[in-house]
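Q: I have 634 residues here and want to know how they pack in 3D. Can you give me a structure?
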Amino acid sequence: MNEFYLEKNLAALPSQLAALIQNPEKNFEGLHSQNLKTNPTYQLTKSKVGDPTLELDGVWIHSRFDPKKEAERFATELPHDGSERIYLLFGAGLGYIIPYLLEREKVTIIWMEPYQFFIKESFQIFDFSKPLLDEKLILITGEGLEDQLSEAVKGKGTHPISFVPHRGSWQWRESDYLKLRHTAEQMFHKKDVNLATLTRFEKIWAKNICYNLPELSKFRPVSDLFGIAEGISIVVCGAGPSLSESIPDLTKYRNQFLLLAVDTALPILNSFGVEPDLIFSVDPQALNSQYLEDDSGNGILIFDPTSTYISLRLEKGPNKGFVTSSPFPLIGLLERTGFSEIGSVPFGGSVSTNAASLATLMGAKSVFLVGQDLSFTKGLAHSKGAVLEERLNYLESRKFRREKHNYKQLFALPQKKVTGNLEETYITNEKMLIFKKWFEDHAKENPWTNLTKFGAKLEGIPHSNFEKEFASDEGEIKTQTNLVQSVRNRIQSQLKIENPFFDQKQLVSEIRSTTEALSEFVSTVKRGLVVSQRIYNQIQRNQINPKTFSEDIKQMDSIDEQVSGKKGLNEILSLGIQRVILTITEGYDDNLTLEEKENAQLGVAKKSLLLYEGLYESVRSTKRMLTKSLYRML
């Protein structure tokens, strides 16, 4: 064993990770395996050829005869064609396979390992310091494995990935290493979903924020609601298939809780005469406004700035309420005109996750989830009435029935199986599993209880029923009713505050100055577009004139510097060019041809061209949309 190797390897790591590996016994017990009660006792032994090997609980982690030859033979079976590739190792034992993989060019080795003592022992056998410093070898261990993995593959979005399970480790503790694989699969799927969402909705989000500004300037900030519901219960109502079966309970105990409903659940609640106190709207698509258009109740809107602007222009429907903040810089135009922070609500990918987070921020003593099936309960994609049934009434014909619409929803994504609260099996899909995982990951810090009749079991969140959670004693009912009514009154009083939270004159000034800045910026961006096109054409045609090419590069550098100096404008414009940004930063290069991928110089020129094309389009469209909102405010 080589202590010098250990010191070099640890020095190549961040201090926190080095400390974790240096003292694995402090982190081993109970972190990764619930049935593990004591640290493993082990002793490295020499194989027949003299190299160290290891036996744990009767399982040989490496060959007892020749561990290096075993590793080399396995490495030759892994694909390698000379192109960029990632090898994702789920365990590597003492690390014998890693040197053979490091010999290959253009590869990144990511070693996921739940047991740090393996890493420490391998560090005393091999010198991995240079590949660790060069990030050709990346270690993932300890807490936050999914976040670590996401960071490790950043910028490598198009590299093929080989999953490499280590046989000896899996034979020893299969369940722990299987969890690593599930974590990786989930992370990559979530990444794909996020990329698809960004590129699909980038322009709609930008449009909605711009067009919503005049109406949102009359709203109150959602931070007004934080802590307002102390001492009462909030029921968060989703639109899952079982919602209609929870209506009797919602009706019976209605006065004992504040009802926070997602907008998609509103038609079902209205059809049964159940009126929510708060209605959360997040979806950017115009179709979502139809959930609100016939509502004539007193429900108060909780509105995300990226939600469809049509919802705020309906003749009927909720038109007053509270606005949330947004991670997109465009919202800064509104934020800067407020007297304090608007308030952020954690976002988990669906309106239900937002609503549950808001209920916690409101300070409720208990938050109950209803209609959170996260599965196709009883073969339904949505609760009856949730799929805009009035719209389907118009669409139905001999060749298109609502049953066909439901069928298409069921099979839009590959089906998965999930276990219910009574160990029954339901069908779900990968998208809903992401939301399920979000609820489970946030269960510890939130007072959530699941009252959903059927559907997927949410691990870490207790399942119960209305009868058990709400009072039946008249005295207690009266007490809870009075408390809930008091909170309703306080919410209403926030909306009646005479002095507006946002300064509309300042907002007009903000929008005007931004449009003027965009008018000046567009000429610089257009010059960048022309020059980048000229550079690209010269490289593509292989007709580079050294003198003019050098002048173009200098001019391009100057334009790049001018553009990068407009940080505020670039942040505003970035929302509309997410696909281009991902092309440059994440290798999301579906805009690049095979020729551009193979020719590095041409690929760089194309990315520059794409950037300026995207910026030019975004400048013009953002200026146009803000100008329209400005006219509506004057």
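Q: Anything worth noting?
A: The chain has three domains: 3-191, 226-399+439-495, 504-633. Confidence is low (pLDDT under 50) at residues 28-38, 386-409.
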